[in-house]
Amino acid sequence: MTSATPQTAATAADPIDAVRLREDFPILAEQVNGHRLVYLDSAATSQRPLPVLDAERDFLEHTNAAVHRGAHTLAAEATDLFEDARATVAGFVGADAEQLVWTSGATMGLNLVAYSIGGASASSSLALRPGDEIVTTAIEHHANLIPWQELALRTGAVLRHIPAHDDGTLDLAAAAEIIGPRTRIVAFTHVSNVLGIINPVEEIIALAHQVGALTVMDACQSAPHLPLDLPALGVDLAVFSGHKMMGPYGVGGLYGRAEVLEAMPPFLTGGSMITTVTLDRAEYLPPPQRFEAGTQPIGPAIGLAAAVRYLDGIGLERIHAHETMLAERMRAGLVEIPGIRLLGDPSTGSVERVGLWSFDVEGVHAHDAGQFLDARGIAVRVGHHCAAPLHTRYGVTASVRASTALYNTPDDVDALLDAVRGIRPYFGV
Q1: Which of 327, 315, 316, 322 is nearest to 358 (CA)?
Q2: Dist CA 318 CA 309 (whole Å)
Q3: What is the distance between the alpha carbons of residues 228 and 316, in angstroms, rounded to a whole number?
Q4: pLDDT tens-digit readout, 67-117
Q5: Per the confidence metrics, is the pTM higher than 0.85?
Q6: What cofactor is needed (predicted)?
Q7: Please, which pLDDT band fits residue 42 given cuts at 50, 70 and 90?
């Protein structure tokens, strides 16, 4: 199989050719239920281009071996590829290789951080005590909520939440009141996976650092869509998942400032993360290897490096501009359809967002609406999108989410709008 070559990066004003890019994604040529596939579920999992498929297959066919533990040629070559992938993915988010820990995805990364903090010694600067406060937001994915709930239960810390306005934007005035002297951790999403709104994370980070709190950011919905420089942003820890950014399943990254990673005790223990072991005790490697016990996702990491090279080759500013155009087109159509209510629709145009919208269809359950769309070849997400408290905030149990990526076209959006217009009449509402 020959890999297609992505377009050469250009200025943000230079629009990408999504029709041409679709040729790099074999699955987009599929037919679903007799219709061309309109894939609008990239916020759940994105499709993979040929260079990613080829990179992982090439590794398995020619270099497959365990890393950091063999003296033979294949092991040395695999280790080089694995560590080159680390440097490539770290560079994609502005970091050094030593600041990137491989994980199985963002959920594992967040649990790693929470359990590591929970295991910190009483003398550690990370240790939590009864009465300390952990602050999250009311719009978090469960993966950036439940680990903190559990950590609070184990340590006696108090969990608090930054509320959101009706339009989905975070209440920064409330945040300034909530984040205070007792705050030890502030965990937040860069982009809501339900609302698509790009949150003012710089302001949240500043509020947290004013009181010496640790900041933890979920970058799953920003890494594939926005230029990211995590060190420049000032966040202490951040996570992202490969399968949401054109990469393989089973791999993700945890970025951490060097001094923060150094202060964190290991979460998982075993082989490959130690320097010395006796029958009674062990000493651990420095980060990032300290957090990488056992066999790592070698092939997926190499595939993820190919994915970020693909994204870089197109240009994240161009991708964001393209997806913003699609989001505007989608909103303009959805608001004109009777019985459709958007979740998180700021009244001001100054709120930046990525290319996704979640909506409620009056009188029709989201799962029924999703099946109606699927029958027409349109793949969307239905449910609470692992953000049940946010849906409760809007008075619904579930919604329909349509999310775009660089390979979507205006025709995809128009196909969605045409189909949504038929949902309520079909169900007799």
Answers
A1: 327
A2: 15
A3: 9
A4: 998 789 999 999 999 999 999 999 999 999 999 999 999 999 999 999 999
A5: yes
A6: pyridoxal 5'-phosphate
A7: very high
> Mean pLDDT, the chain, as a whole number?
95
As given in the structure block, the two tokens for residue 64 are 């497959």
Secondary structure of 168-195 in HEC code, one letter for each residue: CCECHHHHHHHCCCCEEEEEEECECCCC
Q: What is the 3-state secondary structure (H, E, C) of 59-79?
A: HHHHCCCCCCCCCCHHHHHHH
Distance CA 263, CA 127 (A): 10
**CA–CA separation, 336 vs 320, rounded Å?**
25
Q: What sign results for the dihedral spanned by CA atoms 10, 11, 17, 18?
A: positive
CATH of segment(s) 54-311: 3.40.640.10
Cα–Cα distance, 43 to 354 (Å, whole number): 10
R_g of the chain, CA atoms, integer Å: 22
Domain boundaries, the chain: 18-48+316-426, 54-311
Cα 239 to Cα 223: distance, rounded to the nearest angstrom: 9
Give the pLDDT score at 12: 57
Count CB neighbours of 250 within 10 A. 18
Yes or no: say if 153 and 179 are a contact pair by the CB < 8 Å rule. Answer: no
Q: Is 386 a catalytic residue?
A: yes
Q: Which CATH number describes the domain made up of 18-48+316-426?
A: 3.90.1150.10
* Per annotation, catalytic residue among 386, 396, 426, 427: 386
